Amino acid sequence: MTQSHSAPGPLAGYLWQLRRALIELLGLNPGKSITIEKQDDICVVRLCGEVVVAMQAKHSMNSATLTLHSPEVWKTLRVWAAFADKPKSFPESLVLVTTDPLHPDLDAINDKGTLGATADQVRTSLDAIAKAAGNQDLREAYTSWSSLKGHQKVDILVRARIVGGSGKLPDLTGELHQALQRHYIWPEDLSHVSVELDGWFFQTVSKRLGKTGCTISFDEVWTRINDHHRSYRPLVPREPQSTPEEIEKVASDQFATDATFLRQLKLLDANDRALRFAAQAYARARIARDHWLNSAAVGLDHVTEFTTALEDHWNGTHAAASRGLDDTPSADQLRAAGWKVHDDCCIHHRAAFATEAAPPYLTTGSYHQLADLQRVGWHPEYENALKEKP
Fold it and tell me: Would 227 be classed as within a structural domain?
């Protein structure tokens, strides 16, 4: 991490590195972790400890264009040279992230279109710089590079990527908010959630950081986000202001394709009015759920819990209706049992979304979405009946 000559430089650089690490952590998948000041400034590692990405984080208070001659490039190469000496622990990717803008002579490092030719071209330039040893403060870095074998240098360069012009500390707030929105944090909650996460992350790093760095897993940050989803915004948001035309378009499309949920109702001999009502509810629920998720108005966990609760209720109702049938039920008995399940789920059931009762259109429409996927059904023998040609 770069040290600035101005007094705030080291502190700003340290906070910038932590914020950068938190953003990287939020972009991972379960089973991965980040390390700080361990194998590198920031690393992405698997559960087994294998390094996937090794990142050098370079912050500068007074930005200057980064070139192949820049000290920060050579200090980074010195770190990467150490990886090349240990091929079994060589990271898949080597990344330099800097607040400085990049000179065009660094474009070749990021151009992976012709790996071999590009790597040889950059290696030749770096060899010449190291041989000239124009900056005496970088003698050890020049020596580390020069001591590598040709294939080791190429191995570094084909893995290397330089990201220039990264936002400074205040600018990273926007990146953090974008990362949080991908985890379905509501826009109006972004500020206080980012402050909470910043505090938790800084405290966690402070407690764990030792001579061998520290490790924080994605599962840990996901637990914090999930706690937020369970603690905040437990209400059903308002239905989006869809026009009647939008709803009618979605509903009409279901008739045009003979949607499965409509076929399920036809198994019960539903009339046109019942089919039209179902299609309208389906359209309203689908538009609302898509809008809420795309705008981060609800958390994915709330939608998942709501859907699971609907299926659990249907399981009990469908099983009870099936138990009440004769051994060889008539077609009328099967349809009557199907309507009983349908009405119990779609009309009488008062499902909860988070801690609030869901509006009827959401419950009914969501059931029809599940029926369209055949995750629920009304007719006791709906699975076999749907396999038959309509």
Answer: yes
